[in-house]
Specification:
The chain has 100 residues and is mainly beta. The chain contains no helices and 6 strands. A 6-stranded antiparallel beta sheet has the order 1-2-3-4-5-6, with no helix packed on it. A hairpin with a 2-residue loop joins strand 3 and strand 4.
Length: 100
């Protein structure tokens, strides 16, 4: 398993594991922070950022995925798979999901 800030990359993707802080519903930091896996796919003007608890298989429906679109001139648009930030997507093919 990757340790915080370990990185892996190739021509089509990169992945990083890092410790994140969990913020409770009261707005205060929680002691339940855990290591988050981040899988990034870049395809043309799209950057897909997939996040899940470290150790989650890409084929497990436990990822939240956002698509950042480079609109040029320093502008971008962020959309979420299934239109939400829930950890309920499979990350094997983020380009094949529906975003809004």
């Amino acid at each position: 398993m990757a340790s915080p800030n370990d990185a892996v990359s190739s021509n089509s993707f990169s992945a990083t594991a890092r410790k994140i802080m969990i913020i409770g519903t009261d707005g205060l930091p929680s002691d339940s922070g855990y290591t988050m896996a981040e899988y990034v796919v870049i395809s043309g003007s799209y950057t897909y950022v997939c996040q899940a608890k470290a150790g989650t298989a890409l084929a497990t429906a436990a990822w939240r995925i956002r698509r950042n679109t480079d609109l040029g001139s320093g502008n971008s648009r962020t959309e979420w798979a299934d239109g939400n930030a829930k950890f309920d997507n499979v990350a094997t093919n983020p380009a094949g999901l529906t975003y809004s």
